[in-house]
């Protein structure tokens, strides 16, 4: 079974995160599957790419159980974290370099590093009860997935820090005001909202959309994001092996058992 399923709808490529039994929590194999799917989609030169998810959550970020299962030694934990966070960051950069508009269908909670997948999208539709939340200060992780590399540029430094310091939950309505979401809708209308966008996009010249996106996310800007993501990863690897973080992970998992 692949952790990422691919569908073609009206020419657009839809990539579905497919680990619903774990709320699409990320593991190294999943981000690897995602990168492979993005590469295959780019080779097809579609009019648009859509990120979507099976189940009730878009993604709850890195699977805490996976970190704990690999915490037998500090080296094993660091290696696992490097593969997961490094792979996630590479996937985000793949999305920023994608040669067509990227859309996200947010069907439920988006927490932790998976927020970076949403931040890499150009148009975002959220269901009314979806939300975004960091959770880093609750567990002890360093922010990853663009919480410091991408979010401050989107909503302002002060607001980005406030959300992370206080572990605030950003509901769909607030996400719309902040510019993190393009629209909000009932759950039953999510896919039709995305399909309306892909239809509109397909009416335009693909080469114009491509040129627009390439100029917005040009080599220099993506290099800056890559540098910031590398800093996030370095700090994540430093904090993940601390005894306090290991205890935070155990408590977090116990509370949600």
TrEMBL record:
Record keyword Transcription present: no
GO molecular function, one term: isomerase activity
Isomerase found in the keyword field: yes
UniProt cross-references to InterPro entries, sorted A to Z: ClpP/crotonase-like_dom_sf, Enoyl-CoA_hydra/iso
Short name of one Pfam family: ECH_1
CDD domains reported for this sequence: crotonase-like
SUPFAM superfamilies the record matches: ClpP/crotonase
Keyword list, A-Z: Isomerase
PANTHER family, per database record: EG:BACN32G11.4 PROTEIN, ENOYL-COA HYDRATASE
Name of this protein: 2-(1,2-epoxy-1,2-dihydrophenyl)acetyl-CoA isomerase
Originating organism: Roseibium marinum
């Amino acid at each position: 079974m692949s952790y990422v399923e691919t569908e073609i709808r009206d020419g657009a490529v839809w990539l579905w995160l497919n680990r619903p039994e774990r709320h699409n929590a990320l593991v190294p194999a999943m981000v690897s599957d995602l990168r492979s799917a993005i590469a295959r989609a780019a080779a097809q030169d579609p009019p648009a790419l859509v990120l979507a998810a099976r189940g009730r959550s878009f993604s709850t970020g890195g699977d805490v159980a996976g970190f704990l299962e690999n915490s037998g030694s500090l080296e094993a934990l660091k290696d696992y974290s490097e593969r997961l966070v490094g792979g996630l960051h590479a996937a985000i950069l793949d999305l920023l370099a994608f040669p067509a508009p990227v859309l996200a269908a947010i069907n439920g909670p988006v927490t932790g590093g998976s927020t970076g997948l949403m931040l890499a999208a150009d148009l975002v539709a959220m269901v009314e009860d979806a939300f975004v939340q960091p959770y880093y200060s609750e567990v002890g992780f360093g922010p990853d997935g663009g919480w410091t590399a991408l979010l401050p540029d989107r909503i302002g430094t002060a607001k980005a820090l406030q959300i992370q310091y206080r572990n605030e939950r950003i509901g769909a309505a607030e996400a719309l005001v902040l510019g993190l979401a393009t629209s909000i809708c009932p759950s039953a209308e999510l896919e039709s909202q995305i399909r309306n966008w892909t239809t509109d996009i397909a009416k335009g010249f693909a080469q114009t959309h491509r040129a627009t996106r390439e100029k917005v996310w040009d080599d220099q800007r993506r290099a800056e994001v890559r540098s910031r993501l590398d800093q996030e990863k370095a700090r994540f690897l430093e904090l993940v092996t601390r005894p306090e973080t290991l205890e935070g992970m155990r408590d977090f998992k116990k509370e949600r058992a």
